[in-house]
Design a protein that fits this description.
By secondary structure, the protein is an alpha+beta fold. It is built from 16 helices and 8 strands. Strands 1, 3, 4, 5, 6 and 8 form a 6-stranded mixed sheet that branches. The chain is elongated, with a radius of gyration of 25 Å. The C terminus is likely disordered. Bound molecules: iron/sulfur cluster.
Amino acid sequence: MPKGSELARFRKQLLTWFQQFQRDLPWRRDIDPYRVWLSEIMLQQTRVAAVIPYYERFLERFPDVRALAEAPQEEVLRLWSGLGYYSRARNLQKAAQAIVAKHGGTFPKSLEDALALPGIGAYTAAAILSIAYGKELAVLDGNVARVLARLCAVRGDLRAPKRWQALQERADSLLDHESPGNWNQAMMELGATLCTPRSPQCLLCPVADACEARKLGIAELLPEKRRKREAVAVVLAAAVFVDAKERTLLLAPPTSEKGANPAGVADHVPTLVSKMWHFPTVSASEDPAPELGRFVRAMLGKRALTFDLEAAEKVRHAVTYRDITIFPFRISCKTLPQVAGAEAFPLDDLSSIAISNLTRKVAASVLAQARSTKRPLHRVTVAVRAASAGNR
Ligand code: SF4
């Protein structure tokens, strides 16, 4: 850990490098608390390249806090659709509403007020307040922790509470008090561009002479691997009704974790569809067609018709520790059945509503099967009940 004149030199080296080599990112062009906040939320768990088009579209539609606070939630989610971790979008809007109600529409300047907003934790508050208002708060996230662990040759699990606390103290003591916003961005930039998880580029690093891990030749070995939570396998089956006009049926966003599906089956489907519009979906096991048939029967009620469940290519999807396999089944019908809360949408264009990537993949699988000359992978006839369409 550099101290005294070494510390002054260390700060100068990193800040000079940042001024010279920082990437030209849209949220750096106009330092405005709303823009900084939006970018920080979008960048959580998401790569910069993926965020940029979402950030620009979102700002165009919601140019300030008030526009975001007053928008229908459905529209906020639609513009977030594809970026994942949708609770971020919901919290962003709730926070915008709180900022309008309690802070006159301007992101609060105090740490206490910032931390009281939905979706704002210690890292995000420090990032926004230092960049937008020059507050002396050092950021610490996985990226910065990796840089610090290498600079100070810290071994062990960085997320262990005591070790994380020690890293925060190191981050605090390195912080440049003249320009904390630039300092935090410089640390993050170093982690994102040179001090990357694999193959750190120490030869180009502006602070290589102060780096303990480089001196010890262990830069690539740090941080030491954490034991990963074991992946949980989840199997689902989805019913993709398709009518003569190629419209499909989507269920409205589930509102609770349990008992949310029409068959009254309590499962984790609401979480996995990110509480957004979704195909009728059920947890399944080894033989998904009959299970989906029973689910569809329960969903549709008393009038009976017989449909084919036509299997499309299965879809794989990962959400945090869940490793999902979903079996999509096309159910071709003249008219879509009536289901409470469900609506009809063109299967090949679901852009008008908020859907998760999982739902998008299911639609793509069924569309690919329709375009393919291959026979369906599997066809099962199940007696299900249908009514005439009354959906939009
Ligand atoms: S010298 Fe290498 S390991 Fe050390 S901070 Fe720089 S890039 Fe990271």
